[in-house]
Design goal:
Structural class: alpha/beta
Strand order of the largest sheet: 5-4-1-6-8-7-9
Biased composition (Polar residues): 186-200
Biased composition (Basic and acidic residues): 172-183
Order of helices and strands: EEEHEEHEHEEHEH
Region (Disordered): 172-200
Largest sheet: 7 strands, mixed
Keywords: Magnesium
CATH architecture: Alpha-Beta Complex
Strand content: 15-25%
Distance between the termini: 34 Å
Protein name: Nucleotidyltransferase family protein
Number of strands: 9
Number of domains: 1
Shape: globular
Radius of gyration: 16 Å
C-alpha cells in the first residue's frame, strides 16, 4: 500500500505483561505463529517510513527485520509510558500510527483509512469510544511523549479528532485472556475480514 506524500511511522506496543493471560500472551500461538507477529505483519504491508517495536524489560519477543526495538523500563507502569517511549524513538516522521500487538485482525485497509485523515484519527469502537489503532500528526508528538502510567492518548486535550470505524468490527478483537485466544483460534477466520460471530 502506498502512503500519501508524508512520512508516517508506526509504533507497535508490545510491552504489556499479559497478567490476565497468565503471562506470555504476545508469544502465545495463533495460527501457528506468535500472536504479536500478526499485527507486525499487517504494519509491514504498509509503506511506513519507520517501524518501532516497544517491548518491556526481559521480553521474550524476538524482533523482525527492519524494526527498531525500544525497551521500555517503565512498561509495568502502564501503556502511556510505552506510547511515550515509542513516539520519542521516531526520527523523521510527520505522523505516527499507534498499534497494539494483541490485535491480530486489524486490516491494512483500516490503517490506510486512518492514514488518510488530516489530523488526529482514532479507531471508532462499537460502544462509540475511541481507541487504537490511532494516527497522530507531528505537532501532537510532544503531548504523546508526556504520557505516563495507564494514561492513553484519549486522556490528552487533542481537540477535534476524526473517528474511523473499521469495515468489520471483528478487526477490533483483542486478546486479554486465554479464553479470548481459544475463541480466536477456534473461529473460522481465514482472513482479516471474516466475522468471528460464527464461532462457537
Amino acid at each position: 500500500m502506498s502512503l500519501p506524500d508524508v512520512k508516517t511511522g508506526v509504533v507497535l506496543l508490545a510491552a504489556g505483561q499479559g497478567k490476565r493471560f497468565g503471562g506470555g500472551k504476545l508469544i502465545a500461538e495463533f495460527r501457528g505463529r506468535p500472536l504479536w507477529e500478526w499485527a507486525a505483519e499487517t504494519a509491514e504491508n504498509i509503506g511506513f517510513s519507520e517501524r518501532i517495536l516497544v517491548i518491556g524489560q526481559n521480553s521474550p519477543i524476538n524482533t523482525r527485520p527492519r524494526w527498531k526495538t525500544v525497551e521500555n523500563p517503565l512498561a509495568e507502569q502502564g501503556m502511556g509510558t510505552s506510547i511515550a517511549a515509542g513516539v520519542r524513538a521516531l526520527t523523521v516522521c510527520d505522523r505516527a500510527m499507534i498499534m497494539l500487538a494483541d490485535m491480530p485482525l486489524v486490516s491494512p485497509a483500516h490503517l490506510g483509512r486512518l492514514i488518510e485523515a488530516q489530523g488526529v484519527a482514532f479507531t471508532l469502537y462499537p460502544d462509540n469510544t475511541a481507541g487504537c489503532p490511532a494516527n497522530f500528526p507531528r505537532k501532537i508528538f510532544p503531548l504523546l511523549e508526556t504520557l505516563t502510567g495507564d494514561r492513553g492518548a484519549r486522556s490528552l486535550d487533542l481537540g477535534d479528532a476524526e473517528l474511523v470505524a473499521p469495515q468489520h468490527q471483528d478487526e477490533l478483537f483483542d486478546v486479554d485472556d486465554t479464553r479470548d485466544l481459544d475463541r480466536l483460534n477456534g473461529a473460522n477466520t481465514p482472513d482479516k475480514s471474516q466475522s468471528l460471530q460464527e464461532s462457537p
